[in-house]
Amino acid sequence: MVNENTMKIIEFKMEGEFPDLLTFKNGQAVKTAEDWQNKKAEMQKDVIDLQFGTKPPAPEFLEVYPTYLGGSPATYLIKTGKKDAPVCFSMSVFMAQNQKAPVVITGDACFKYMYDKEYINTFLDAGIHLVCFNRTELAPDIAQYNVNSLSEDFAVRDIAQKIYDDTIAKGNCGGQLKNAYPEYSFGAIGAWAWGYSRCVDALTLLGIADMDFITFTGHSRGGKACALAGALDERASIVNPNASCSGGYGSYRVKIKAEVNGVIKESEPLSNQFYNFPAWLGEGMRKFVDNESEIPFDSHHLKAMVAPRTLFVSESADDIMANPVGSYLTTEKAGKVFELLNVKENLIWYFRRGPHYQTVEDVTQLVNVIRHKKYGEPLNDKFFKIPFNKSKLV
User: pLDDT per residue over 264-321, tens digit each?
Assistant: First the structure.
């Protein structure tokens, strides 16, 4: 279990002050729940559209076709979007025994941990359905380092590099959702977040889940998509991005260096997004590279947009790239909104030890949160442990 001596912080740097969540642009204070709803609407342009691009709209139609119902998981084809330019992707459902069970939705079917039986059974054994989709069916996960490490076959790598170059030259994330909605400026994260909401639509049609207890989760780049989806889709009663780094719940302004197992590592800067992953964020964020103090928001805005619903932030104290210090400080700032709305108990966080991954321990903690909220079961003793000494952040 972590404690204030877990992290050995070598350097802490703050690029300017955190923008105030509880003040309107005209200088007036946010004082009531109604004010907060108006503040959220005001944040749409700066926090959502600037950071992720303008989002694709709700679909004109949605149809769900079973493709395999003979075992676990059951699989479905979701056909949706524009009637004259439909988008199709698959959704898999691992069913718990209770038909109307709470459900966890993740877009990380492209990650290998999604095929780990212990990971899956952590949900099912707790009476929770697990729904997963492959977000890269909506927009490709284009990254320069993926191209470099793809293959030792230079012919294959050259083809991948051409796809990367062609997509980036067009100034968008590519993929079938962008082809359907070219007039919107969303990047890949925006496309992936859209997929979460379409899975909720599909579950509504299928009638196989407790729709009052929908949880969004996702790891790393999937955590960024989860964070955006959770901010926008209020049907998610619990939002749990895991180690979502820069562009998710790690801070843009907070920069750290820390020693882990004898190795000094740095938190992920905004510049890394545009060097390695230029199709992820909205293009408007590029002007803030190496100029983070001028960003009109930070991740506490994205976190606070979940309120008054339940926000569960899960991080590793060893995962310096994900900026655990920045994540904690912005969670603390977001807490002001939960306090304003009298739902302090709906802001939950924890740190573990270990690598950049969504582990069985992480989802065990998530299951604890879900069952705490649905059945009143107590939270265990791993939550709310700070892995560094706050007084030393100077």
Answer: 999 999 998 888 888 899 989 999 999 999 999 999 999 999 999 999 999 999 999 9
Sheet holding 61-68, edge to edge: 61-68, 74-82, 85-94, 129-133, 103-106, 214-219, 238-242, 310-316, 347-352
Residue numbers of the chain with a pLDDT score lower than 50: none
Inter-CA distances, 248 with 189, 192, 228, Å: 10, 13, 8
Query: Which residue stretches of the chain are H helix?
Result: 33-43, 50-52, 117-124, 144-149, 154-169, 176-180, 188-206, 221-232, 270-276, 299-304, 324-340, 360-375
For residue 236, give Cα distances in angstroms to 104, 105, 130, 180, 212.
9, 9, 14, 25, 8
d(CA 190, CA 226): 10
pLDDT tens column, 363-386 = 999 999 999 999 999 999 999 999
Distance separating alpha carbons of residues 368 and 44, to the nearest angstrom: 32
Give the C-alpha separation, 84 to 248, whole Å: 33
**Is the preceding peptide bond at 73 cis, omega within 30 degrees of 0?**
yes
Bridge partners, 81 (sequence order): 61, 86
C-alpha span between 124 and 114 (Å, rounded):
13
